Amino acid sequence: MARLQTPRSKISGLGSSGHGTHHYLVQRVSALALLVLVPFVLFQFLAAFTSGYDAAYIWVGSWVGTLSLLALVTAMFWHLRLGVQVVVEDYFGGWLRMVLLLISSFGCFGLWLISVLSILKVFFEG
Amino acid sequence: MAQLTLPKNSKITKGKHWPAPAGSDVAQVRTFRIYRYDPDADTGPRWDLFDVDISKCGPMTLHVLIYIKDEIDPTLSFRRSCREGICGSCAMNVDGRNTIACTKGVDELKGSGGVISISPLPHMAVIKDLVPDLSDFYAQHAAMEPFLRTTTPEPQKEWRQAPEDRDKLDGLYECIMCASCSTACPSYWWNGDKYLGPAALLQAYRWLIDSRDEATGERLDALEDPFRLYRCHTIMNCTQVCPKGLNPAKAIGEIKKMMLERMV
User: Fold this and answer.
1) C-alpha A13, offset from chain centre
2) What is the pLDDT of residue B101?
3) Chain A residues bordering chain B (beta-carbon distance below 8 Å)
4) At residue A1, does pLDDT exceed 60?
5) Interface of B with A (CB under 8 A)
6) Domains, in order of start, for chain A
7) Which domains are seen in chain B, by residue range?
8) Which residues of chain B have pLDDT under 50?
9) The pairing of beta strand B46-53 with beta strand B13-18
């Protein structure tokens, strides 16, 4: 049965959720961080990598390499999670939206965790 | 939620062709492809073709529609009132772009393959032919509480406002609520039940920036939502199509700035 509801009631819905600005702000701040981190890490890593695997390994295990890579993967996966959330909210509704948001959350967190552990492994072993 | 295929019975079929009457100036005949839908008929929507001798009607698209209704097919339905770009009633999609038919000159229309398409505002339920259901759009406008909200006792004369504060309302108060902007916005298409759309948000900013209003905080609270405000991805279709030359995208950007200002 079609739900009898006035347009005003439909538009008001459950009211304002009271958040959104934080997501908007973090997405932009992480984008700014990536704007600096991506070229920096790429430049450093490629410079080390051209000298061979061992040099690249040493760079990853150095303080500069470890810290910049940790910052990069954190900013990257956080930004990815927030961006995917926007895309999912745009194009999917209902239960599918919930499922996709959960998958993207766990996926991003899992990839971040693997990346961090890998970087730390090189740092402590190197 | 995005729906990428048309629902059953919504596929548009080929309709009737109304040739120009004998004696028409062939050089002046232009073909208009008009969306037709009659809820009382069992058939789905269709495209009707009208060959119109534009020397026999006025220069605007609305003149052509009125000519078709008066002289060719009286069953054609569309909204119109002021015929001078003030009421916003005749908003529709003309030649692929939302606009108001009364200020859109036929000479501006390029058409596609010699045919000019006219359809209702996109992604809205159609009542009949070129008449969309704007109930939700008006409800979104009403939800913005488009009036002065104050708690200070009303002054004996008027609420005073500095000229420079009054200037801030220029480019905002002129909205005629034709819905061209909101119905041109993909975010509004996909999430029109939750996202307020450019027209309502332009109206919201008009009251947020009004120096006399005392409910700025409450107004911002009502917009603090990932869907109501933050579905705007600065696509800019709204600004591109506004027949009054307003800039809803900028107004939405200003609201986001106000949100950040009170947070950071």
Assistant:
1) 30
2) 97
3) 6-8, 10-13, 16-25, 86, 89-94, 97
4) no
5) 1-2, 135-136, 138-140, 142-143, 187, 190-191, 193-194, 196, 221-231, 233, 256, 259-260, 263-264
6) 20-125 (1.20.1300)
7) 8-132 (3.10.20.30), 135-263 (1.10.1060.10)
8) none
9) parallel
